[in-house]
Amino acid sequence: MVTTKDIAKQLNIAVSTVGRALSDDSRISVETRQRVQEAARNLGYVTNRAARMLRGSKSNLVALMVPDIRHSFYYKIAHAMAECLERENFILTLSETGDRPERELQHLRELAGSQIAGVILIPTMRPHAESVRLLKSMPHVQLIRRHPALGGQSFGIDFARAVEDATRHLLQLGHRHIGYIGAHDQLFTSMDRLNGFRAALQAFSAKGSEQIGEPSDPDWSAEAIRQLLRQRSRPTAVVLSSVRITHDVLRALRTLGTSVPDDLSVIGFGDEPGFEWWGPGLTTVDLPVADLSTACGLWLLHHRLKQDDSASDAAFTNLSTSTLLVRGSTAEMRKSPAAARKKTA
Amino acid sequence: MVTTKDIAKQLNIAVSTVGRALSDDSRISVETRQRVQEAARNLGYVTNRAARMLRGSKSNLVALMVPDIRHSFYYKIAHAMAECLERENFILTLSETGDRPERELQHLRELAGSQIAGVILIPTMRPHAESVRLLKSMPHVQLIRRHPALGGQSFGIDFARAVEDATRHLLQLGHRHIGYIGAHDQLFTSMDRLNGFRAALQAFSAKGSEQIGEPSDPDWSAEAIRQLLRQRSRPTAVVLSSVRITHDVLRALRTLGTSVPDDLSVIGFGDEPGFEWWGPGLTTVDLPVADLSTACGLWLLHHRLKQDDSASDAAFTNLSTSTLLVRGSTAEMRKSPAAARKKTA
DNA sequence: CTGAAAGCGCTAACAC
DNA sequence: GTGTTAGCGCTTTCAG
After folding, report:
1. Which of B59, B75, B84 best tests the A interface by mutation, with the highest count of A CBs <10 A?
2. Which domains does chain B possess?
3. B286-315: per-residue pLDDT in tens?
4. Number of CB pairs, chain A paired with chain B, less than 8 A apart
């Protein structure tokens, strides 16, 4: 490893001169500056950030903590963050929590030791007390989810409105009995989504059939849609409230041979590769993940990490709104589904 | 930030004693060790890795460099790496190159300065000379692709065999005229795949129609499949040779209304969510990405990063084999495609 | 068993 | 315009 000392020795000058020349200090003569910078290039000098950090400067590491990078939600976030941070010469670290508080804590410990500059996290349901304490010592923002113990800065999506818009779309198509499949966790955003669904129904005095459960069980969603379709008076449309559920229900509907949108209109959640070509094309809630992430990344960089400690700890919440992507899986309600079936046959 | 000095002051002992106690040095009495460790816990001490690194120890950062984390190929890799590194208390950094040498270089500069412990990279087509030099100073492995200038350690997939197996499957179903859609870049693995295709055809003395081009253009693949289907004597099956191409062709086939597998048997590349429910279910080459990545990560950790510098620079190449996932998009060749169409109608 | 002190590479305050 | 020096937090001799 080449150090400033090596450069100094080679040019017969002092280390401090080298340091100043490398940072283009105006006190150093232009000539010396050039000589130093050239020598640095020739020797392949790279500044040792460990040493610089020891002197108090911040690291250029920003951590992103997500449940599982394989979900479209999260890899889209990671991509947007990577681009955003790269532009400012920051390095992105990636931690997967698997939604487990212990893994979250383990990562935070590791990150704290590495003097991370900041953390962007999708928190687990119930973070450990130590996680909370560790986060207090590093600038951070919550993304997508929001846990009260983790400080007031967060970027999220208005899920209530997203689901409400989706439901309204079905109502405007004439549907008056709509199914809903959603998750059960108390905290976070699941309740928001359900509330959006209920709000829309109420506005039209329509009927809802809710299936609430544990979508992390791979078979649960399939069973939920079967339940809905088995009712004597079954819903003519269904709203799915997470990407995971959408995946599982789409697969189940193919197996069941349900005709979409003739027998059932379907609105999914999120837009993954494949949703476009599922059956007649899936009408779905398009989440503004990329924009949200970029906004979040920039905000962390500019409001929380800038040298001047003017950065306030004031609560800050940004809620993005999503848009409905209308494709073929939703249609006007016909009086009799059977009639519709005949017509297309 | 709590330091060893703080702990020392609080307990009225020397910093060196604290340091030794924290690393469970046998020379320190059990009692002192416990007192120190308890104090550390109470004060919320975390060891400052910057300082430790300055003393010569390696960082716990391992970098992963991929073209774009949003592709299934790469997020699967990232996931496997994250899990693998986490187990050994390493931190994964994620760099996106967008397949552009300049971005690759920029990231490598940043990583070099941060004293990264090691690099796992999917190299760009033509890495900069400086990238090559930088990589020489850090332990690294190439993954998936393999560029001769970047050292002899690599983990890859036997693409030639993957495509050959896929083609053979079609041949065994009786197809004797098979289309192939593939990429054009000279280096790396594209040629391997094409060779696999040709080898299989030759074994059966069958006819091939190759469309070779630039799949990064979103419309190119669609045009390629149209070309194949427009020929007077058109192929009865087609082999797709990248994930990207598979996505684009599947979309195009839907638009064209081609009946699969009656009019055309199709074999895709990679297995993404959605391939399973595309049309009759896509027969595809299932790439052993997760296993490969885990193997690669473990290898870097254990062969290249261990303190003892016994780590050899010997060339090492691991080629994994993939398996064919047979679903509904491939069928036995009928004499007349039209007859098949009638039968199902 | 424990303490004192040096030094990793860099920056910044203080000379000249 | 440039040199000297101290010190960031830790590990590691070398002394006791």
Report:
1. B75
2. 4-47 (1.10.260), 61-157+290-320 (3.40.50.2300), 159-287+325-334 (3.40.50.2300)
3. 999 999 999 999 999 988 776 554 456 778
4. 152
